[in-house]
Inverse folding.
């Protein structure tokens, strides 16, 4: 796998594009999470110029919304685990 380039965005911390096995991988990174989209080479994408057109502000906003949902889901899961742990042990006075 080789890095093809990066896409600058004011909305997302880091967007990196890789090429591997006739596919482009577009990796979005936030502080704690990652999302990767795979696009087969030749399906309206034949290089970095096509990918930059694909990764427009509307798409990046959608990705950022998904990051928020991922964080909400993860916090909800952690909170649920904490509640379950408290119930497992007897209270000692």
């Amino acid at each position: 796998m080789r890095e093809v380039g990066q896409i600058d965005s004011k909305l997302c911390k880091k967007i990196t594009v890789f090429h591997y096995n006739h596919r482009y991988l577009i990796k979005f990174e936030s502080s704690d999470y990652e999302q990767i989209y795979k696009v087969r080479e030749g399906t309206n994408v034949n290089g970095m110029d096509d990918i930059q057109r694909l990764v427009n502000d509307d798409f990046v906003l959608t990705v950022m919304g998904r990051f928020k949902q991922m964080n909400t889901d993860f916090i909800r899961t952690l909170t649920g685990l904490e509640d379950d742990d408290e119930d497992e042990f007897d209270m000692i006075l």
In short: The chain has one domain: 2-87. Strands lie at 2-7, 14-20, 23-29, 34-40. The CA atoms of residues 45 and 82 lie 45 Å apart.
